[in-house]
Amino acid sequence: MRKSLFKPVTFKKGGIHPLENKHLSAHKAIVELPLPDQLSINLSQHLGKKAKAIVEKKQVVCIGDVIAEADGPFSALIHAPASGTIKRIEEKLSAQGIMETTIVIEVNKEKTGIDRSKFETLNEIDLSSFSREELIKKIQQNGIVGQGGAAFPTHMKLSPPLDKQIDVLIINGAECEPYLTADHQLMLEKSMEIIKGTLVLAKILGVEHTFIGIEQNKFDAIDLFTKILNDQNITHIQVIPLITKYPQGGEKQLINAITGRDIPSGQLPFDIGVVVHNVGTAFSIYEALYYNKPVMDRVTTITGFVKNPGNFRIKIGTSFQHAIDTGAQGFLDEERVRSVINGGPMMGQSVRQLDVTVMKGTGGIVALADAEITYQDEGPCIRCSRCIDVCPINLMPLQLADDTIMNNGKLLRDALDCIECGNCSYICPTNRKLVHWIKIGKKVYRTWKVQEEKFNKNI
Amino acid sequence: MNTIIITALSLGLLAFAMGVMLYYASIFFYVEEDPLIEEVNEILPQANCGACGVPGCLNFAEKLVKTRDMGLFCPVGGNDLALDIASLMGLEAVERSKMVARVMCQGGDHATRTGEYKGIKSCKAVAIARQNDFTCSYACLGYGDCVAVCDFDSIHIINGVAIVNEEKCTACNDCIIECPINIIELQPYDKTVFIACRSLDPGGPVRKYCSVGCTGCKLCVKACTFEAIHFDNNLAAIIPEKCTNCNDCVTECDTNTIVVSLKGMAEIKESIKSNEKVAL
Amino acid sequence: MKPLILTSAPHIKSKSTLQQIMYDVALALAPVSAWSIYLFGWKSVVVIVTAIASGLVFEAAALKIQKKAQIMKTVFDGSAIVTSLLLALNMPPASPIWLTITGSFVAIIIGKHTFGGLGYNIFNPALVARVFLLISFPMQMTRWISPNGFNSEEITVATPLDVLKVSGLQKMQESFNMNDLFNGYSTGSLGEMSELLLLIGAAYLFFRKVITWEIPVSMLLGLFLFTGAFYLVDPLKYASPFFHMVTGGAILGAFFMATDMVTSPITRKGMLIFGAMTGIITGIIRILGSYPEGVSFAIIMMNAFVPLIDRYTKVIKIGSDKKR
After folding, report:
1. Which residues on chain C are in Cβ contact (under 8 Å) with B129?
2. What number is the average pLDDT over the span C286-302?
3. What is the CATH number of the domain that holds A324?
4. Looking at the partner chain, which of B115, B119, B125 has a beta carbon nearest the beta carbon of C4?
């Protein structure tokens, strides 16, 4: 196998090396999870405005039908992941911890089995016959959002303001979160498909250079992609190995590692000519164009304190309980499970009840037991400055936390630059909840700004 | 002896010289200011709470005297203060009905929890991280951010939920701004009935997770002969303008969600002791 | 299934704890402490044990008065033990028990808890105690004895810096040998005997990433260059800068006292400034001042400047429009 021609690179500041724990689910073939009896899909599957439900109670839907339309450009469509009947539309707790309007579908398993065949025929397309606008439209119509966790509507990312010159496309195969292996497995099983999706993205953006960044712990994926690109003689896409360090998969860090550029505070990647997409998004784009298949499922790693950790293709709206019971065969010990996380353990949200459901951005379901949750009370800051050492944005977390506690909105402008990667809280020897304080600090700053403007007008 | 005389004389002269300098300085640096401003400022409560919309009592006095706008109202001093200011300035006082803050929740120890939150013990922290462990997503979180920010000792956490001491409350708005889930509301002090719940969940779940939550049964709506109760999305709310304090709805509500407001700490404590109809 | 725990991200934590850091420091000081017991026998044991025991008692009392939770856990988090050990290593070998206990009281109660406890103190607590004792009890705090193992007989001696200040360079060079000073046969407080063992301890701290190079290097460099300048001007009057590095509290101060996390700057640039100034002030006191040794004073003086230094050496975030 041909190794990548490039020396491994990484971002210039900070980073930690947490225990990866990827061995639990690494190299486990993607298994399609059996359909549950019920799917609960909330309308806030993506960043931006919530989608608007266009179905009603008792309506019959087919797999792939649009059940919620986008509310304006900064929004995305939602499609029915299975055939069935709309049971009800209610306010329900989402996996992210907020009450959201949720469409509950009573699944008709036989009908789904029949109806799904319309998405299972490959139609080879000629990419050159599509215009840029047509491709973006196809992506939008299939409800594609970023699969990296943030779920940004993809069609928006592909339509930057006209004055922005994009010269680099980066495909994010870093998957830096501990425990998660979904992207890795997808890269091993669907490499050609991801490359085809990448070609679509490259065409839309009209870029000369496309880089696929993959962390070194996934050396087989690096080798595989390098070989395929070489065999297919695709010279404008290159595989860049990345040194394994968290948060290598963060947008800012990835761009810095591969291109050396930094995004100025408050700006976005397209302001410096770069667009980043997750490998899962590239795969969704492939499915949309070659199979006319909208986003209805995703690959999620179910891992941690479960009997059968692995990578599963799960329908959007499947409850965590069903996923853990049917896919991972339940917890290792019901009494000792203490926390279940939506996403990865560094940036995910701990869920309160297991009837929350998988969303378009759910990359992992991680169950943690007693030993791993080292929850302790916060101690005082001992000014060891390790948080500054590990911060990839070169902020001063101890100071931001202190300013937040002192409610000093004026000094908290820098809190807005925090990417909430979790390095500072991870490393703090006295268990200070630095990321949590900085999240509050963002609010404190914004409140202060509003008050400032109000008082300035009043006097 | 000489030393004492010399010391006394020289220090005395020095003090005299400084006194003369201060006298001339007070003339030289005198700022022309309307003496009325100081007069008004004297009778203001000096709480500097910002409830009037102006930062600081002195600034309020200044703005009031400069604009002569009696619409500017100090809620801490209330109508009594407004009358005093009016007589000072020779204008008509604009009366306002006393408003108080009210917490729209009685959950606390009556509400069940799903999950166990471990982290920074602040309502803002819980809300921002979306880690509310009450089963009800509309519940008062009970960590007391409102208590910390109140300058007037008018709000306390009792039995796990915040409650306002309406005698002391000045409607300064601090707790309302601070509450991260916005369940504190300003209501007229003399309308004594309110529905202490914000849950939009239907009756089934509410009955399971809170013994004092609004189940959307609409008994209160039927009972009210003044059409003063508005019902929407599984939640009832009283319209203060139409309410006559007749207390019919209070009697009808079988979950004790509709309460008669307790005016002061003494009443609150009494109610807890006697474990009366009012859930607190 | 028990209720699920809700924590804010991140949900995993590195294994590094405060206890680990503190016990690493204590471990790094073990060689020097052991050597001091070898040299001074029971006297040294008494000083060290009294300091640690009374330190823990005062810590527990202070926490009780402040009504803190989990007192036992906090008392043994290691910070009181390290402060007490450092205090002990700063005391003369023949220190009476009452002197050590007073020092411990000043260090823990006044130097640490009056400021708010761990993390809030401005000045290094062990040094606050040492300076307090030095000024209040100058006789007892400058009563040095020569090493006599476990014999009870005491022979008073002077430290190399004492001799330098009082009798001049000639006399000092006749009385002391640089190699001995470095290896472990110096005179002075318990922690100043062997620079070699101190450096071994410091190497362990570097390896465990408890300290970084900025403060020790800049402090020793500052001291070296300052004293070196004087030496170059008049080598017959002023001692060589190498001598200055291996005597007194220079190495103990540079690696163990000035590097105290709570009282030193948080930025790397700030640490360099802090260290350099400490070294220079030490040199000023040693050469131009009336005290023979200046490390304690220098560190405490610079501790006061730390907030200012932090403020003016703020790190520039990535993506800032300010140039470095």
Report:
1. 8-9
2. 93
3. 3.10.20.600
4. B115
